[in-house]
User: Fold this.
Amino acid sequence: MLKGKTAIVTGSTSGIGLGIAKALAAQGANIVLNGFGDVDGPKAEIAALGAQVGYHGADMSKPGEIEAMVNYANATFGGVDILVNNAGIQHVARVENFPVEKWDAIIAINMSSAFHATRLALPGMQAKNWGRIINVASVHGLVGSAEKSAYVAAKHGVVGLSKVTALENATTGVTCNAICPGWVLTPLVQKQVDAKAAAQGISNAEATKQLLGEKEPSMQFTTPEELGALAVFFCSPAGDNVRGVAWNMDGGWAAQ
Assistant:
């Protein structure tokens, strides 16, 4: 379905980003990975799906490096058809104790990077009259949680950016939407479960139950594969008139 299309997926060397990248690759898209840590493993996973794959290690807090990443995709694959803004970091503290440098970093990486990548990729999409911008927000783009001021502010901002981008391109073949996951079973979250189990002397299963029970009525994690399938839907002809939505995949979290 996506043969000949090229997707940049930020923060895609693991977790949600890698899950989305693999789903797009399975549909034939060329993939530009981005992120830190192991690169060879994720590249091999994408290549195994028969897709062409590149990598750019742009620091998503730096607009100049984001521009270099988009230029790399243009030079390597001839353009950017799909942009998935997924890169994100987290820090937890009360507002009065929140480190200013952590606030600035979260706003830069979780929100401003989506703006910069979008403004740089849009002209090429508009010229072809086809494009998909998928912003990975969070259920925290819809509701709040204590001690997550920067993250919640950034994700609400991403939802707002998605709506404006969609409206500005509403009469074109370029769409923009946000995905709002709840708890997703990534290696990072698994570490949180393991730490909770160790700290309380309980089983891993009980720690998982506690974590999910705090917020997620379904009592089950969303998976990167499920989020990837939603991204593929947005890129399909069935998604042509899906514009400016904040689509939560959160097990009922925001419905409470």
